Amino acid sequence: FRDGDLGVSCRGASNPVIQHCDFTGNQYYGVLNTNSSITVNAENNWWGDSSGPLDDSDDTAGGGLYNPGGLGDRVSDYVDYDPWVTALQLPLLGDVSLNGAIHAYDASLILSHLAGSLVLTPAQLAVADVTGDAAVDAVDAHYILQYVVGAETTFPGETSDYHGEPFDPESELIAEAAEED
Description:
With 181 residues, the protein is an alpha/beta fold. Helix content is 23%, strand content 10%. The protein contains four helices and six strands; from the N terminus they run ββββββαααα. The protein has helices at 104-115, 122-128, 138-148, 169-180, and strands at 6-10, 29-33, 40-41, 53-54, 72-74, 79-80. Strands 1-2 form a two-stranded parallel sheet. It has a two-stranded parallel ribbon with strand order 3-6. The protein has a two-stranded parallel ribbon with strand order 4-5. Mean pLDDT is 86; it is low at 160-167 and 172-177.
């Protein structure tokens, strides 16, 4: 759930279990629960920062949580977000730095890798291939820069040409490992 107004909005009697998800860049809330009689289980999620979600409403006297120092997406009261994970669950295509956001720095990591001044990890290589052509090259850095300045809104590799399925870094890493054997 990224770059929206709300990641998940729980209203009425809805009581979802929201686990092992990534919340980044949502403008108002990562998880908003408007029902004070239900606590939504949102444990084991990435909130956009290792410090966890922003929870600046101190409802600890009523059994709630409080995390005013959280730098991640905001959560409302009646959301159980503890424990949270301190690393991105599923990296974003183009997020070569694996920090939960796509910046020009990610393109520079690709170019540094190509110049031989650093070695990217298998996870970084999987998300660096934004063209989906099974190779990491300067064209991938180009697309990342175009994305950062708003000239592109998606990457060519977001739909794999090889499988006709959405990009999945985990399956890309498995396929890459199989090719190396």
